[in-house]
Amino acid sequence: xxxxxxxxxxxxxxxxxxxxxxxxxxxxxxxxxxxxxxxxxxxxxxxxxxxxxxxxxxxxxxxxxxxxxxxxxxxxxxxxxxxxxxxxxxxxxxxxxxxxxxxxxxxxxxxxxxxxxxxxxxxxxxxxxxxxxxxxxxxxxxxxxxxxxxxxxxxxxxxxxxxxxxxxxxxxxxxxxxxxxxxxxxxxxxxxxxxxxxxxxxxxxxxxxxxxxxxxxxxxxxxxxxxxxxxxxxxxxxxxxxxxxxxxxxxxxxxxxxxxxxxxxxxxxxxxxxxxxxxxxxxxxxxxxxxxxxxxxxxxxxxxxxxxxxxxxxxxxxxxxxxxxxxxxxxxxxxxxxxxxxxxxxxxxxxxxxxxxxxxxxxxxxxxxxxxxxxxxxxxxxxxxxxxxxxxxxxxxxxxxxxxxxxxxxxxxxxxxxxxxxxxxxxxxxxxxxxxxxxxxxxxxxxxxxxxxxxxxxxxxxxxxxxxxxxxxxxxxxxxxxxxxxxxxxxxxxxxxxxxxxxxxxxxxxxxxxxxxxxxxxxxxxxxxxxxxxxxxxxxxxxxxxxxxxxxxxxxxxxx
Length: 560
Description:
By secondary structure, the protein is an alpha+beta fold. Helices cover 49% and strands 10% of the residues. The protein folds into two domains: 2-168, Butyryl-CoA Dehydrogenase, subunit A, domain 2 (Beta Barrel), CATH 2.40.110; 174-344 and 369-498, Butyryl-CoA Dehydrogenase, subunit A, domain 3.
């Protein structure tokens, strides 16, 4: 985020000065925004940057303990510079949060500069995981920087101390957010597909129960309980991959529109990327843990690769925007869109379905048989009706409150569910669109169609209450969807291993003895066990001091 921040908020002159230094690693930068007392509420940050006209510079200061910068990656030990976010104060007025480039350490001996106190915040979740990242703490004691180290693309302070907004629109910041969140969604697909690859391959190797007359036991992957837990995760991995590819296109589209000074789709793009970041990261974190359980006891071993993968991935639910906070931002935009439906203003992009409000509020699902749920038009309309009706219900309930903010606060749990419904509609839509394209390879399109239907019907089954409560489908249609889902699992089963092999991950990248491509799991597990440092000695340390006296009954017992 150090480089994107300078790119997005720095002037051309600042970019020419600082970016080459960063690209060549002549300086090492970090992004110092989050504080001990404030994370999601950026406007609540306490660090100050006070302009001093006598020296033509800013004084960066941490006025309270809670204003200490806390969590920036690379800060603890490595970084020499930071983009520091602080409250800009000039002529006695607070102009809110702005970015400043601040040198933290000497480029000669790496020691902290005067007035700078910094270090690492300590161990984090997991044995390895993010503990290789030097997340840091940083405090300033009246540290002075030149005025031109304020990032001045969007606003600036003159030599006389006047605060001036530039003619560059603040909407340009959306471009950076779309880029970062697009990459997070792509990472979700990679992490989930790794976990699913391990679980599917191991489930095909592992055999348990079912032996008849001394014959072979049953592959765990053949049990319907295993399939009903695992195959929706496999489908999700593909779904997130395709929606991530689409987000990549969206970033390019947003960038081109920004350059053309077209800001019409920015709000919708922000809602889309924020919501997808929240939904995909939460689902992936839960799915990695589920894959560990699906691998039984061996999944708990570090050598399975799953504990480390979970520990490394789970922070994604919090960094770059807490998922609940992001979903509430999506909900606000949904409520605004609903309020504009009567004005004749047509929703755009992924919210275009809301323009069909009269039809979707009254439509009845036409499904009559289980096979009808394989019709993408029926699936699409059910998801659109659910998302729209939940949003409209929330808007109506908020309208009954004493004021809008109070209503939003009271209905925030419902708003979260409404936002999730909207984002799940986007994922289903992009999966359907992908399947409807010309796809090369014999039988590939059929398999992707199966996975698309698994994902959609699994989400419908999981959130059946939403679909029933809003009247989008009947209980009978919900039962038919579940019946069809079971049939789809049977169709996915013969190609399950091939579908994870298609991710083309090397054994080195997977880092799992359970997910080996050659399936040689048990010898690998046995071999890995002997590499443990505890096995470097046959008789353990402490034997003569503790175990030997205990075994010989020579320990002195307390009179108590």
